[in-house]
Design brief:
Strands 1, 2, 3, 6, 7, 8, 9 and 10 form an eight-stranded mixed beta sheet that branches. This protein is of the alpha/beta class. It is globular, with a radius of gyration of 26 Å. It has 18 helices and ten strands. Helices cover 43% and strands 10% of the residues.
């Protein structure tokens, strides 16, 4: 009897241990997949992984989870590694900071809602007594309103036609939530990059694309970044870029072919992006969405699918694409806590037809599939990489200039000049600036960058002095670190990650502690970057 009971118990224990092992394996596997939802490498070796990831993503991508991440609502604690390094022998010389504008109204609305925004308070009307708000919002509004005439008089001519505050709710206007986001982000990064207020003016360069939402976001960011010098920044300090890719920005040399945004191939990005706006005519949820939003009254989109695209041509830019519908939903409803919209049932007037979570989940899956196809398309990779190449080249050249300047001050024993704030170049752009930038770096994002996202390129120097006075070091080594929303992604750049493994062999250094030697970053920009397109110079790559 005893033996039989023991045998049964042992069998049960083996079964339990098997289940536990299986559960742990599944958990680790899911954790691995989830960890890849921010960055992805584009290579032939990962095609199988992508299809598996895409299938898994359909199981975990809920509209609520995605919108929470994308909206990036103000009032949350901002965290990040910007301006800090765990190694005390590292000194920060400069940073290039690309920010995405804050929360805005949708780009467009579907036909059924065109000209009919949701009822209630307009989200772009600024009122610091109403949420979302913070301690800086009221002061910012009063400062700008009290000095509008003075500020506008001294501003860049391209910006003088823009309102300094989003008082009118036009399409794509920045909202109070967006202004509050940027105030908080500026305040956070002020604590990381500003150490000496008296010298900060000469250490900061500011650029923006020529859109009201990026300009107004920049103003609120600057007020949070350094309110004491806000007027100085705004009056004649802000330059504009004619391109959302900042290809005409060069701080270190005379203008060249690269900085005139003359690349013909790069100018095809918008049309290439439009060619990946497929619908799924076989999905009943998507068909229901078509009917409910009356999309087909304006465009026969049910015919547009991945398979039929070659037959009927690319989707026009004005068409209500899946990504535009999702943008409308997240910008108009999810980000502002509104319930999903409903429309009267034309057949049964007493009833309404409402969007539901299942339909929107299918829409998100479709948006994700289109996006994955796009970032794996060679022509899109080439166009976006060439569009961002001048900007990356400008960063590379500026970093080399900063190192030369630092060495000069060290050689002249002017050590006081090496203790100033790090150089900061602030650029206010879009999600379609950040997305192509990471494609160019060969680590494309699997999802659109959230509102108020930031990308930091930091230049550090390493020496053997713990007091950061590297002028007295035997050897000064410059390094580049790249952060996305505060997270170090430098090691994901293939050229840097592969080579820094032997540069930093110490097992105590994690991937997040391994910057990229500036010489490797320079090699990636000036040599390996164009080799991907079988070209040796930028002009030839643009024409091929």
């Amino acid at each position: 009897m005893y033996t039989g009971i023991r045998t049964i118990n042992m069998k049960k224990m083996k079964g339990i241990m098997t289940l536990i092992s299986l559960a742990l394996a599944v958990r680790l596997f899911l954790g691995f997949l989830i960890s890849r939802t921010t960055l992805a490498h584009v290579s032939d070796d990962e095609n199988n992984f992508r299809s598996l990831f895409e299938h898994r993503m359909e199981m975990i991508s809920l509209p609520e989870q995605r919108s929470i991440e994308y909206c990036n609502k103000p009032g949350q604690k901002i965290e990040g590694m910007e301006g800090k390094y765990p190694d005390s022998s590292m000194k920060l010389l400069g940073t290039v900071l690309l920010i995405r504008h804050g929360d805005r109204l949708p780009i467009s609305r579907p036909p059924a809602f065109d000209g009919h925004p949701p009822p209630g308070r307009k989200p772009c009307s600024l009122d610091p007594s109403i949420s979302p708000t913070n301690r800086m919002l009221g002061h910012f509004i009063n400062t700008v309103k009290g000095q509008t005439a003075l500020l506008k008089k001294s501003m860049n001519p391209y910006l003088q036609n823009f309102d300094l505050l989003p008082d009118t709710c036009s399409d794509v206007s920045i909202t109070q939530s967006g202004i509050t986001q940027m105030l908080e982000l500026g305040d956070f990064l002020r604590q990381r990059y500003v150490t000496d207020i008296s010298n900060v003016h000469q250490d900061v360069v500011i650029s923006t694309s020529r859109f009201a939402r990026t300009f107004q976001s920049l103003l609120s960011f600057l007020y949070g970044f350094l309110p004491e010098r806000f007027n100085e920044f705004v009056m004649g300090k802000i330059s504009t870029s004619s391109s959302i890719y900042f290809c005409d920005s060069d701080l270190s040399s005379t203008p060249s072919f690269m900085t005139h945004c003359n690349c013909a191939k790069a100018k095809t990005i918008a049309q290439l992006r439009a060619s990946f706006r497929y619908w799924d005519p076989h999905n009943p949820h998507i068909s229901h969405l078509h009917d409910l939003l009356k999309i087909d009254e304006r465009n026969s989109l049910k015919k547009r699918s991945f398979e039929s695209e070659k037959k009927i041509g690319p989707t026009p830019l004005s068409v209500a694409s899946p990504s535009r519908i999702w943008d409308w939903l997240v910008s108009e409803y999810y980000c502002h806590g509104r319930p999903l919209p409903c429309l009267p049932n034309e057949s049964i007037p007493s009833q309404t037809n409402c969007l539901n979570s299942t339909t929107i989940k299918e829409l998100i899956h479709l948006v994700d599939k289109n996006h994955l196809r796009m970032i794996n398309d060679f022509q899109y990779i080439k166009a976006t990489s060439l569009a961002m190449y001048p900007f990356l080249s400008s960063i590379n050249k500026k970093f080399h200039d900063l190192v030369k300047k630092y060495n000069y001050h060290c050689a002249s024993e002017d050590t006081s000049a090496t203790d100033n704030n790090p150089f900061v170049w602030i650029l206010s752009g879009h999600d379609i600036t950040i997305g192509p930038l990471f494609v160019a770096l060969d680590i494309p994002l699997l999802k659109k960058a959230p509102y108020a996202s930031r990308v930091a390129f930091e230049l550090w120097v390493s020496c053997d002095k713990s007091d950061n006075n590297c002028c007295y070091s035997h050897e000064i080594k410059p390094y580049v670190r790249i952060l996305l929303n505060g997270k170090d992604v430098t090691d994901n750049i293939g050229h840097c990650g592969a080579k820094t493994n032997w540069e930093f062999p110490d097992t105590q250094r994690t991937k997040q502690n391994r910057p990229c030697p500036l010489s490797y970053f320079n090699e990636f920009i000036n040599y390996n970057f164009l080799k991907r397109f079988n070209s040796t110079n930028y002009e030839d790559a643009c024409q091929s």
